[in-house]
Amino acid sequence: QKLHQMANCKHPVVVRRENEASFDADGEEGIANESAFSSFVAGTAGGLVSSLLTHPLDVVITRMQAQMHPSQAQKYRNTGSELFFIANQEGLRGLFSGVIPGLLGSMTAWGVYFVAYNHLRALLQHGFHDHDASTSKHQLSPVSNVACAVAAGCVSTVATQPIWLIKTRLQLQQRSCSQYKGMIHCSVDIFRTEGIYGLFRGICPSLLLVSNVALHFMVYEELKSSMLQHSGRKRLTAEQTCCAASMSKIFGTVVTYPIQVARTRLQQGDPVDSCRLPAPPPGPLLLPYPPAAGRRSNRGMSSVLVQIARVEGVAALYRGMGANLLRVVPATAATFVVYERVAAVLDEGGVMKVLHTKR
C-alpha cells in the first residue's frame, strides 16, 4: 500500500508546475476578457462623444445625398446655408432629428467593432507567434490588419443596419410632414409597411462600405506604427492620434463616397407622398406598402449609381462630400483620441485592477 501511494503521489515540483500552468491559463483568459471589456468601453465612449458632437452635420449630409434632382440641389448651395435653413425652418429639433438612433447606432457599432477587431488581431498574433512568448506582440502585416478590419466591419454593419436605416428616415422627414413620431414608431411602421426587408434596405452598399473602414484602419495602423517607432513611445499622444486618424479617414472617405450616396438613396424610402397615404392594413407585411413602392424597392446599388451619374451628373456622386469630411474627420479624431485615452487608463490599472481584485 505504501509503494502504491508513493507511485500515485506526484512530486512537489510537478504539482507546482501544473498549478503554475493552470494559473497562467486562467490569467491569460482573464487578460483576454479584460482586454475585450476595455475595447468595448473605450469604443462605446468614443462613438458616443463623436456622434453627439457632429450630429447636425450628419443631418445636412443625409439630406444633401437624398436630393434627386438638379433643381433640388440648388436648394442648398453649401453646408452653411443648409444648416441655417434647417435651424430657421425646423429649429434645434430639426438639426438633431434622429439623434437617438444615431447615438445608439454609433455606440453599438464602435463598441462591437473595436471588440471584434482587437479580438481578431489578438487571435492572429497568438496563432503566428504562440511558440515564442517574446514575439507575441509582433506587429501584424497590412494584409492581416485589413482582414481583421473587414471581418469586424461586417459584424458591426449587420448588427446595426436597422438602426442606421431608422436614423436616415428620421433625418429626412421634415417638420411640415412628419411621418414618424420617434425611433420605435419608425421601426414598427417600416416593419408593417415594408416587411423585414425594409429594415435591411441598403445592406449591400453598407457591407461594401466596410472597405472604407478597412482602408481607414490599414492606413491608421501604418501611421501609428511609424509614429511610435519614430518617437520611441508606447502610446501616441493626442496630437499624433488626431493626425493619424484624420489622414486615414480622409483617404478612405474619398475612395468610397459614391457608395454612401447610393446607400442613402436606397434607405430613404419610396418616392410617394407618405403624408397622404391611407393607413396600412394591420399586421406585418411581407411585401412593401403601398404596392407601387415595390418598383423602387427592387432597384439595386448599381442601377442607382448609374441613374445618378446619367441624370444628375458624376458630380452628384460626391454631393455633400465636403460636409461629410467636415463631420467624419473631427468625429474620427475624437473617437480615436477618446478610445486611446480610455484604453490606456483601463489597461494601466483603474477599473481592470478593481475587477481583478473582486475575482
Can you give a write-up of this model?
The protein is built from 14 helices and no strands. With 359 residues, the protein is mainly α.
Relevant terms:
mainly alpha, 14 helices, 76% helix, globular, disordered C terminus
In short:
It is built from 14 helices and no strands. With 359 residues, the protein is mainly α.
Number of strands: 0
Task: Indicate the radius of gyration in whole angstroms.
Answer: 25 Å
What gap, in angstroms, lies between the N and C termini? Answer: 41 Å
Low-confidence stretches: 2-7, 11-18, 20-26, 129-136, 271-278, 284-297, 351-359
Task: Please state the overall shape, judged from the principal axes of the Cα atoms.
Answer: globular
Report the helical percentage: over 70%
SSE inventory with pairings:
Layout: H1 2-8, H2 12-66, H3 70-73, H4 79-95, H5 99-129, H6 142-172, H7 183-199, H8 203-208, H9 210-231, H10 238-267, H11 294-297, H12 301-312, H13 321-348, H14 350-358
Helix pairs in contact: 2-4, 2-5, 2-13, 5-6, 6-7, 6-9, 9-10, 10-12, 10-13, 13-14
